[in-house]
């Protein structure tokens, strides 16, 4: 990547000087950003964008080294050009070099690993684990009620856990799935405890979806409670109307156990 940047330097410029200047400028920019504590800006960049950036860098490096791996000269300034150039010269490939590369799994493992990682990450983020919770009578631990149907439940209260970062591509889908669990519960709960302790972060779209979900629960007559302890989601939600309404009514707690205890103390559980 440094070589690509240096390719645009004016003729006559020393490559060593240009590389050293680039390294120093990069370091200075990072130091200034660290001194000004600008790391929070990354919170406004959604995970798919960061995943795409890192995956693109990996593919760029893999495509750029393909010619070296198979023992041919790959020409071109762009990734696609170098890739096509290398593939177009497969007839000239150096067989021992190719055999060594294949033997060590370089050609297969790098692109395959990147592709599989991207697909698994996207699948996990777009289809996060969402399940109702029950309380283990022996240990008092809240766990997946579908796997442990004999666990205790709280009268009138449905507890649902979400395990994934929430962002623009999955936030509203998560809200729909939780709403479906509320609608399908028998008997119909009059309160929902949303366990977000498994959510490490959220973007602005997820914050908007959270406010819409709160409104949906209010329209259905379901009292919303939230367990949330991750710093980034707390900071994102702190200045919203939903946060003010929930915290003002004592509906926000750092753990499921604390929320359930407050729910019982409020008298919402009924007789």
What key phrases describe this protein's structure?
single chain, 271 residues, alpha/beta, Transcription Regulator spoIIAA, 2 domains, six-stranded mixed sheet, 11 helices, 6 strands, 54% helix, elongated
Short description:
With 271 residues, the chain is α/β, with parallel strands linked by helices. The chain is built from eleven helices and six strands.
Radius of gyration: 26 Å
- The global form is elongated
Question: What class do helices, strands and sheet pairing give?
Answer: alpha/beta
Tally of individual domains: 2
Give the number of helices: 11
Describe the protein's architecture and organization.
A six-stranded mixed beta sheet has the order 2-1-3-4-5-6. The chain has helices at 2-6, 15-35, 47-70, 79-88, 95-103, 106-126, 171-184, 204-219, 231-237, 241-248, 256-265; strands spanning 129-135, 142-144, 157-163, 191-195, 223-227, 252-253. The termini are far apart. Helix content is 54%, strand content 11%. Helix 3 (47-70) runs parallel beside helix 4 (79-88), helix 3 runs antiparallel to helix 6 and helix 7 packs parallel to helix 8 (204-219). 23% of the residues are buried. The chain is an alpha/beta fold and 271 residues long.
Strands, helices and their partners?
Elements: H1 2-6, H2 15-35, H3 47-70, H4 79-88, H5 95-103, H6 106-126, E1 129-135, E2 142-144, E3 157-163, H7 171-184, E4 191-195, H8 204-219, E5 223-227, H9 231-237, H10 241-248, E6 252-253, H11 256-265
Helix pairs in contact: 3-4, 3-6, 7-8
């Amino acid at each position: 990547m440094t070589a690509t940047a240096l390719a645009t330097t004016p003729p006559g410029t020393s490559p060593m000087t240009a590389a050293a200047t680039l390294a120093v400028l990069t370091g200075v920019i990072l130091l200034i950003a660290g001194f000004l504590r600008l790391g929070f800006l990354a919170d406004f960049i959604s995970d798919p964008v960061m995943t795409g950036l890192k995956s693109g860098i990996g593919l760029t490096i893999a495509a750029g080294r393909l010619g070296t791996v198979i023992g041919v000269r790959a020409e071109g300034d762009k990734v696609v050009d170098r890739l096509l150039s290398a593939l177009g010269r497969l007839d000239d490939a150096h067989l021992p070099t190719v055999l060594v590369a294949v033997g060590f799994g370089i050609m297969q493992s790098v692109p395959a690993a990147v592709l599989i990682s991207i697909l698994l990450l996207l699948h996990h983020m777009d289809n996060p684990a969402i399940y109702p919770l029950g309380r283990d009578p022996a240990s008092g631990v809240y766990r997946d009620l579908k796997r442990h149907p004999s666990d205790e439940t709280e009268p009138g209260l449905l507890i649902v856990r979400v395990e994934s970062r929430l962002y623009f591509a999955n936030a509203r889908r998560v809200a729909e799935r939780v709403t479906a669990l509320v609608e399908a519960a028998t008997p119909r709960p009059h309160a929902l405890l949303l366990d977000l302790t498994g959510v490490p972060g959220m973007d602005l779209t997820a914050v908007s979806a959270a406010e819409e979900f709160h409104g949906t629960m209010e329209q259905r007559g379901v009292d919303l409670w939230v367990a949330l302890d991750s710093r980034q989601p707390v900071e994102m939600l702190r200045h919203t109307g939903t946060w003010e309404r929930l915290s003002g009514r004592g509906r926000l707690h750092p753990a499921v156990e604390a929320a359930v205890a407050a729910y019982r103390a409020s008298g919402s559980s009924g007789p």
